[in-house]
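In response to a reviewer's request, we include the raw inputs and outputs for one of the modeled complexes. The two entities were modeled together in a single run.
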Amino acid sequence: MSRRILTVDDSPSMRMLLRAALTEQGFTVFEAEDGVDALEKLETATPDLVITDINMPRMDGFELIEALRTGDVQAGLPILVLTTEASDEKKARARSAGATGWIVKPFDREKLGAAIRRVLH
Amino acid sequence: MSMMSPIAPPLMRRLTVAQGDSIVSGDPDVEFTTVLGSCVAVCLHDGRAGVGGMNHFLLAEPAPIANEDARLLNRYGVHSMELLINAMLKQGAIRQNLKARIYGGATMRQGLGEIGNSNIQFARRFLTNENIAILGENVGGVSARRVEFRPAAGLSRCKTVSTQPVEQIIIKSPPVSGDVELF
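The model returned the following structure tokens for the whole complex.
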């Protein structure tokens, strides 16, 4: 059974690009457009991994990670941040909030797939 | 009769937007400029925030099987557009207020026609997907263009500069991209 990935990004184009890259590598993808939408989807859906952007309206990636780590949604769910941000300060904030990893856009399909497989195994 | 000299227009600080670049500013004394062949530049503006930005991308989207150095992906429109939009939001723009103009996408040489056209189609599709209104465009044809854009005011102008190729395809590598760090 293919592993399920929730992608969270406010850009439809980026979600489309991610979906193409991940389905091509055998993953099943479903999507949310920001943190609030992700939390709603996670009330019923059970992904194996979440990939989230940082800069999003309503609820950003940091707030989403904090909500996932302090809430009762699937303890231990891996969360990869995929962002244009590259600052050490923001990376440290994501790490302390409970992110599993940090990937800088623009992403390389194979590196992204390799990182996901490493986290999931 | 007064012999006073007419007041000279204020000097603008001109910044060149090179291939792969995305630049944003709210400074009223700044003007962005770029020269386009088959590349496309998108100018974004938020009139309420007084912030504008311009990018310049070489190719619309990665090939279906992208097995190349991620550092090169910045030339692709989808990444360039995201960098531009994020930079706009950081400077106070609001996504719903963004308005766009599209420039470039000329056919500069025989055989390169699809690149320019693909860039134009990509820009239109991307902006439509993102619900960003397209106020205007000056695209296609066979001539290079010089685009000037005042980001704070959102004023742009586009001139045909030549029918000769002006654009060398040079891939610039951004400093960081595609890096993976697992905690």
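As requested, we also summarize the result in words. The first strand of chain B starts at residue 13 and ends at 16. Residues 113-129 of chain B form the longest helix (17 residues).
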